[in-house]
Structures are given as structure tokens and as C-alpha cells.
């Protein structure tokens, strides 16, 4: 086999309820993930030992190549080591990540890369790991990686790694407003803990399943979904990046049905009525000067898959 190509999608959390900090340093979550049509691609080919290159969004000297490391710090590298060890094969592969999902954006770009790498290497090495084994490895790699494997819409519990599919018959249209500088996920969780300790926002602990949101996902309309969008990490993300308030306001003024910070931010996910509106809003927000770049996307879409 010469080369295997896999791709995996970005995600938006349409609900992110954050409970208390656990002894292991993670927060207990109740989240609803939705995979959207912005994909990273991982190409795996034969190699001697592991080698990794990264191209695309967020790489390039101007944006700081360090944002996406090309050594063991990269989740793709660790995914390769984990699959090789679990299957008892040598970790020999040349891996190339082509990024469309910006790093440190709250879109699970690194998780998508890890999920795509598991799928590509499973095929390259003929390890036939099976979806359940891949899901267990994904959970070891990061909280969002199991969702990147399954895609679609899913409820995530635990630290987000235990995922169950959620029904959504509608194709939702979004504009992703991507800020110039990323936010560190641990920093945003840390700010949440500080704000809660200071009594500036309510304590966590309410991890009920968001039934109105699940009902809206099943059958719409977009207004109902917009009303149910909710993210406990939005307040700390806004505290760390006050400019995001302007970005959310710009989205509303441009005619969004709803808008929220995606995951730990700083990406703003803007729900719109239809595809035409997505393109109209994307053009308007691109010209408003509040985002580095904007993308019109839709979801749900499938999780990590072999391409072609
Ligand atoms: O699992 P992942 O490596 O993506 O998590 C990155 C960081 O985000 C964790 O080290 C932790 O600080 C924070 N996190 C958390 N609770 C979660 C998921 C992530 O506190 N459920």
C-alpha cells in the first residue's frame, strides 16, 4: 500500500455544561457535540520510524509553526505510537497533516487529526483495530477524540470522552468566525474555576441533559435550537478575550439566528437560517473586521473516514 488518506471534521459544542473539577484535573461534563464540514486531512505512508509534517491553516512562519508541533507533542504522533503498541506492530509511518481547522480555536482540530491518524494508520498497517478499540485509544488521547471518530451529533459525558449518538434530521448551517489568536483550553477551564470561586458566576454541578436542545436538534426549527444553545465556557472565554463580545454582537446584528463561543473558544459559531444566509453572513462578517477569517459550514457530518 502506498499512501492512505483520512479526514476528520471540526466540532461545535451546541451545549457545554461544565461540572466540578475532578481529582484527575478534568471537569465533569455534559456536552452535545455537532460535527461540521471543515476537515483536516492526514496522509499516512510507509516509513522507517515516525516522521510528521504539517501544512495548511495555522502553520507557516507568520502564524507561528509552534502552534502545531511536528514531534511527540502532536496528538497524531501519540496516536501512531498508541495504535502500534496496542497492535504489536512497529511504529513505522510517514504522516502528513493538512490543516483546514485552525489550532487552539475551540474546534477540536488536534482531536480531528488524532482521529484521522488512527483511521489512516489502521488501514496502512492492516491492524484491523475495530471501532471499539479505536474509541478506547481515542479516549486515551484526549477528551474530544472519541467524538472526532464518530462525528454526527453526540452527547458527551465524563470528561467528554463517553459519547452516545443523538438524532438530528436537519442540516444546520453555521458561520464560524475565527479570531486571530488562539485560546488555551486549560487556561479557559482555569478561568472558569477562578470565576466560580470568586462567586462571579454560578457554581457548576447542574449536569442535566438539555432536553429542549435535543428536541430542537431532532426536528428544528432553527429558532428553537438557537434558544437552547449554551456554553459554560463562554463566560471565562469572554473574560480572557473581551473582544469576543463585539464579535458576538456583530453576528447578531448581521442577522444570525443564534451565536455562541465554540467550546473553549475563541471561535464564534453563528447559527443561520439556511445556506444562502450562511454565505451572506460569512461575506458580511468577513468585511466587519472582527475575525481573522470566516467559514460557512454545515453539520452534522460524518466522523473520521478514509477519503476517496
Ligand atoms: O482532554 P484534553 O487533552 O483535550 O484536555 C485538555 C485540557 O482541558 C485538560 O488538561 C484540562 O485542563 C481541560 N479539560 C478539563 N475538563 C474536561 C476536558 C478538558 O478541565 N472535561
Q: Name the helicity range.
A: 25-40%
Q: Can you summarize the main beta sheet?
A: 8 strands, mixed
Sequence of secondary-structure elements: EEEHEHHHEEEHHHEHHEEHEE
Query: Could you tell me which ligands this complex binds, including any ions or cofactors?
Result: cytidine-5'-monophosphate
What's the end-to-end separation, in Å?
15 Å
In the CATH hierarchy, what is the class of the largest domain? Alpha Beta
- Uncertain parts: none
Oligomer: single chain
What is the global morphology? globular
* β-strand number: 12
Determine the number of helices (DSSP H or I, runs of at least 4 residues).
Answer: 10
Structural class: alpha+beta
CATH topology heading of the largest domain: Ribosomal Protein S5, domain 2
CATH architecture of the largest domain: 2-Layer Sandwich
Radius of gyration: 19 Å
Strand content: 25-35%
Averaging pLDDT over every residue, what do you get? 94
Tally of separate domains: 2
